[in-house]
Amino acid sequence: MTIQPIASQSMSADAIAASTASAAGAAVRTPVQTMDSNVFMQLLVTQLKNQNPSAPMDTNEMMAQTVQLSMMEKMTELATSSKEGFSLQMRSAAAQLIGQSVGYTLPDGTEGTGIASAVSFNGPVPTVTVGGLAVPLDSVTGLTTPSAS
């Protein structure tokens, strides 16, 4: 095997400064605030790369870390399923309010009552239209069946 020498390149001071500035700008990133499987795998690979060849990682420790990864992934799936289930429950509850007389208290303290005429699912919390006013579902405080006229 033949090793080829690296050809030297002369760079001007301006080119070096520009290269350094672009590298510094590229290095800026926002830190990850959650631990996911990608972070776990990066840590595991780094650990394997830097282990002492004369004292390799214990297989029991490796299995424990693999089990922790599996548990973390399943917990993440469970949390996602739970959020989706809660969202469906809110939508169902909001849809059942149509035609009902509801009482509400808005975040600014405004209270009112009226007949729910429509429901919107655009935001994270469904909104119920009461007398032309969009009321978030979590602001509804009471429910009565309107009296027959």
Index terms:
149 residues; 5-stranded antiparallel beta sheet; 5 strands
Layout of secondary structure:
Elements: H1 13-27, H2 37-49, H3 59-95, E1 101-105, E2 111-120, E3 127-130, E4 133-136, E5 140-144
Verbal overview:
With 149 residues, the chain is α+β, with helices and mostly antiparallel strands. It is 44% helix and 19% strand. The protein is built from 3 helices and 5 strands. It has helices at residues 13-27, 37-49, 59-95, and strands spanning 101-105, 111-120, 127-130, 133-136, 140-144. A 5-stranded antiparallel sheet has the order 4-3-2-1-5, with no helix packed on it. The chain is elongated, with a radius of gyration of 30 Å. The chain starts with 12 loop residues before the first helix and ends in a 5-residue tail after the last strand. The mean pLDDT is 79.
The description of the largest β-sheet is:
5 strands, antiparallel
Strand order of the largest sheet: 4-3-2-1-5
Which runs of at least 5 residues are low in confidence (pLDDT < 50)?
A: none
Strand content: 15-25%
Number of helical stretches of at least 4 residues: 3
In short:
Helices cover 44% and strands 19% of the residues. The chain is α+β, with helices and mostly antiparallel strands and 149 residues long. A 5-stranded antiparallel beta sheet has the order 4-3-2-1-5, with no helix packed on it.
